[in-house]
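User: I'm preparing a small set of examples for a lab meeting where we compare how different chains pack in three dimensions. I only have the primary sequence for this one, and I'd like the structure in token form so I can line it up with the others. Please keep the answer compact; I'll paste it straight into my notes.
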Amino acid sequence: MNDSRTIPPITLPLLFATLAIAAMGTVLLLTDIVTFTIASASLCGLVFLMRNPEMALAIQINGVALYLYAVYKLNIEGGTTVTGAFYGILAISYIIGGWLSDKRNGRLNLQLIDLLFILLYALFFISYFLQSRDNPLAYKKVVYAPVLVVAPYIGVMLINNAERIRRLIGYIALMSIVMIVPAFYELLTNPLYQEYGRFSIYIFEDKGDNPIQFGIAYAILLIVMIFRIAERRRAGLIDIAIILPSVFLLVRSGARGPVISFIVTMFVFLVWLGKFSRRIKFWILTGGAALLITAYSLIPTSTVNFYQVLFDPEVSPTQNPSANSIQERIFLIDLAIDEFLSNPILGVGTGNSSGGVGYPHNSVIEVAAELGLVGLTIFILLHAQVLRTAYFAFRRTAGQQLSWTVGAAFAIYIFSFVESLFSGYMGGDMLLYVSIGLVSSVSRVVGTRENGGSAELLAEQAG
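Assistant: Understood. Below is the structure token output for the 463-residue chain.
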């Protein structure tokens, strides 16, 4: 028998909207209109991103440069608190939103990849607490890792749906596409880049720029575009309109690591993994080489020097020494190697490598120096499992609808790992560990031998 006094159940969206209105009203009463506007915009952004967790995750992975560009153009010096709040909103969005979007999250099984990642970062934090030397750089490294590595990995781990993986990869590429117009606007109108060899979409007086981040963005975009074209077996005008400026911006960034990593990744797929005919391989290799050479011929001399210094350190003796980091990196790597040899079992502790800098610029050497053979063993096992899992997933989906998604995820991992050999940093190597999580999620979707999946799951996800 129904009780007429029973109150109809309040849905979660209605409750959330009520609380949001109450919160905004309180903020308006207690603050000024500017603060109220910022708070309201942040709240609306949070709601939107929670409904689109893959976009929130893509923004953190590949779209932070757009946020920094907006700050740069508004002449606002982004403080730690503001930037931290920005990352916080993104993390809340893709973790809570991803959990709510995952109807089967209660049945989510951890892969061996995930367990090895957890073990590696558990050792990362334990090592810091056991071997702390009151090193502020080590503290900074440990504080950044939860937001820049662990949270994004959790966000990717919550994705066990083929369509959501496609959306994530698509949004990651979209971030780079959106940057094309402002990038060329800066190149054409900002006189700074007439002489400054490296290029990023922003540059702050005290914090500088990040051409490596910029170069990575366009290397990833090119990887995604190549696999999308391979899936359709044709390139349209829109594809060409995206690829041509992307190749130029990758080379113009002056970021040598991303350029080398991109070339290595494409070579691996063409020669080892890709089942292409010799004719297709020939056209891809010659076409890609022609685009890179053309882009190289269009960049200014100051940028050319960044590449030539790889082969001849004396090619640009008047170049700002801080811009030529090769000798500095070699010095930091040598220090880290000596530290590993002196402390081979447990290392010198998280953040204490390279004389306390904590940044040898090489992921393998960093883990060896800071976490010793214990950490290095876990690290090697992790990457061996990622390669094994990705390889089987890639082979199993050959010719299937998921083929380009698996291939792109595998290629992004290879690119990220190679890039980490030039600039690895456990406190913020988001792309490397997100790509590892992406391989894990893809393998759950396609049901590889490693996770005991079934052909039925593959057929279901392939549509």
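A couple of notes for your slides: The chain is about 75% helix and 0% strand. The radius of gyration is 23 Å.

User: Perfect, thanks.
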